[in-house]
Every structure is written in structure tokens, then in C-alpha cells.
């Protein structure tokens, strides 16, 4: 009997070799060697802990739910793109015993053990997908804004390999600016200064910072219908009056404390040519503002839900 998992394993991972497990170290952080040219962030334990913390932040945002999408029945075949530590895929598989979940990532940072209905695969989502066409009933893609360079092609592949009527959920966030409603983060304060250095580096690497509206437009252009955008304003730091928002802000600040170096240091020193000492000071000053209750900064988390038409029109 034809089996999707056997088929996929044979066609897509047959070329994997020992080299997939190799790492390099830079500035005390561990990077996965095979993904180093494509993906900026490290894959060490600090980064894995940060990814799991961000997962919990999403659960808080979505009232304990793993998705914004509501399902009438378990989607049979599910793909989690750029699954990171695999935490979302494992929890989704646990909640949906009738689903077969595939988590795919460039880096081998998923657990060696797994649930019977969850599999992890190593592959590059920017290459031509080897999955069957019209196959997945739900595709989940979260926080790949630093990963995907060719978004129209990526969304086109998602569309092509999704079953008619299948559901898609994309979650992304603002990457190159923070906001305030009360001017408590002046232009000459550390974070706006850091963003001014980061923006040209992103551009040089082909990373495009996009708004929720732009992501939504691209999802529509890929052919999806019933495309909805949900935008959450998320505080950075524990400054909000509301208790729930204060807790969210505290989690965000913690993810940034452990992530800011990974997101910025190599980039601004190697690509932006900022001298090492200056870069260190900019990062230290930026991190310090995370515990400043006078700075009322926030960013946006975007959730986009969509469906592939039952009858293909493009
Ligand atoms: C910021 S993490 C998000 C992880 C996960 N989606 C989550 O929300 O916890 C981005 C992940 O995408 C993976 N990645 C980057 N480029 C990729 C590519 N071209 N193909 C597959 N995975 C990729 C990275 O290895 C990393 O695990």
C-alpha cells in the first residue's frame, strides 16, 4: 500500500548524510553548519529554549489554542513548516489524534522520540517540494520571516501541495520596528538606533520586513480564499496596566533578552560592519530598555487564516 511517510522519506531525505549534524561556533553561539548560509539564527539550547518560550507566548495570545483556525474535524494530513524544536507539531498531534503531522526544518533540533502521528523531516522549504500535490489538509507556518527569501514561491508551493478545501495559517510579526503611542521611545534611544542599523542588513540579505496587510495580500495572490488577518498589539516589557498584558510583556522581554544577541550581533558586525565594541554597547543598551517601565513599546503579531478553494481557479 502506498504510504505517504515512506514515500516522502525515500524521496526527500535519501541524500541526508552525517554532515547534517555538523555545527560551527561563532561568538559563543552554536550554528547548524548546513543552514548557516541561509538562516541567521543559532540552533543551540539557548535558541531552542527561546523558541519554546515564543510558543508559550502564542498560546497566551490565542487563549490556550494552538491555532486561530477552528476545525470541525481533525485535518488528516498536516504540515508544520520550519517546525523548530517541534513543540507545536507535537502538541497539535496530541490534540488531533486523527491527524498525521509532518514537521519540517533545515536544522535537526527536534526530539529523537515522537508521537506515533508526528514525524520530523529535514529539508529546505525554499527548494522544490517533493510532497504529493493537493495533499495537506492543514499547513502551519510560524515565524519564518527571517528564513524565507522568496515568499511568493513559498506560498505558491504551500498552495500547490494543499488539498482543495485545505486550511492555511501563517503567523508572523513586525521585525524591523517597535511602536509607542506616547513617544516614550525617542528616535535617539537604543532600540530605534539598533533598527536603523539592522534595516540595511536585512535588505542586503534579501529579508523583507512586511506588515500584516502585506502578508495577507501575498496569501490572496497565491490563490487562497477566505483570507483573514488578525492583528495583536503585544507589549514589550511588563509596563501595561492590564495584568494579562503585563504577563505577555514580561514573556516578550525574556524572549528578547535571550534572542537579541542571536538576532543582531553577527548581522550588524558582519553585514553592517559595526565595530564589535559598538555593537556590544548597542545591544547592552537595548536590552536595558526592556526593563524600563517608562518605555511603553509594543509590536504586532499577525495571524492569517485562509482556505484553498475547492475548485481551483488559478
Ligand atoms: C524562528 S524559528 C521558528 C520555529 C517554529 N516555527 C516556531 O514557531 O517555534 C525558524 C525555523 O525555521 C527553520 N528554517 C529556516 N530556513 C528554513 C528553510 N529554508 N527550510 C526549512 N526550515 C527553515 C530554522 O531552522 C528554524 O528552526
TrEMBL record:
Pfam families: Methyltransf_23
Signal peptide: none
GO BP annotations, alphabetical order: methylation
GO molecular function: methyltransferase activity
Keywords: Methyltransferase, Transferase
InterPro entries per the UniProt record, alphabetical: SAM-dependent_MTases_sf
Name recorded for this polypeptide: S-adenosyl-L-methionine-dependent methyltransferase
CDD domains: AdoMet_MTases (cd02440)
Origin superkingdom: Eukaryota
Amino acid at each position: 500500500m502506498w504510504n505517504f511517510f515512506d514515500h516522502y522519506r525515500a524521496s526527500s531525505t535519501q541524500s541526508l548524510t552525517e554532515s547534517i549534524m555538523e555545527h560551527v561556533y561563532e561568538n559563543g553561539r552554536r550554528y547548524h553548519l548546513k543552514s548557516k548560509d541561509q538562516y541567521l539564527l543559532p540552533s543551540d539550547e539557548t535558541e531552542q529554549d527561546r523558541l519554546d518560550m515564543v510558543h508559550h507566548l502564542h498560546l497566551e495570545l490565542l487563549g490556550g489554542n494552538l491555532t486561530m483556525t477552528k476545525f470541525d474535524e481533525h485535518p488528516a494530513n498536516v504540515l508544520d513548516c520550519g517546525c523548530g524544536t517541534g513543540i507545536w507539531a507535537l502538541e497539535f498531534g496530541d490534540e488531533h489524534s486523527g491527524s498525521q503531522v509532518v514537521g519540517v526544518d533545515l536544522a535537526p533540533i527536534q526530539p529523537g522520540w515522537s508521537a506515533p502521528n508526528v514525524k520530523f523531516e529535514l529539508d529546505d522549504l525554499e527548494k522544490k517540494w517533493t510532497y504529493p500535490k493537493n495533499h495537506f489538509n492543514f499547513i502551519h507556518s510560524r515565524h519564518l520571516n527571517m528564513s524565507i527569501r522568496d515568499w511568493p514561491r513559498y506560498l505558491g508551493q504551500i498552495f500547490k501541495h494543499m488539498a482543495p478545501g485545505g486550511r492555511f495559517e501563517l503567523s508572523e510579526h513586525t521585525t524591523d520596528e517597535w511602536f509607542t503611542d506616547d513617544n516614550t521611545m525617542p528616535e535617539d534611544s537604543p532600540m530605534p538606533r539598533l533598527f536603523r542599523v539592522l534595516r540595511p542588513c536585512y535588505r542586503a540579505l534579501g529579508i523583507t520586513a512586511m506588515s500584516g496587510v502585506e502578508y495577507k495580500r501575498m496569501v490572496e495572490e497565491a490563490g487562497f480564499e477566505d483570507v483573514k488577518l488578525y492583528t495583536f498589539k503585544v507589549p514589550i516589557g511588563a509596563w501595561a496596566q492590564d495584568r494579562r498584558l503585563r504577563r505577555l510583556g514580561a514573556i516578550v522581554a525574556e524572549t528578547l533578552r535571550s534572542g537579541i544577541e542571536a538576532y543582531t550581533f553577527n548581522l550588524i558586525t558582519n553585514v553592517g560592519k559595526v565595530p564589535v565594541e559598538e555593537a556590544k554597547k548597542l545591544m547592552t543598551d537595548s536590552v536595558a530598555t526592556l526593563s524600563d517601565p517608562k518605555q511603553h513599546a509594543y509590536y504586532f503579531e499577525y495571524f492569517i487564516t485562509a482556505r484553498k478553494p475547492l475548485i481551483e481557479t488559478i
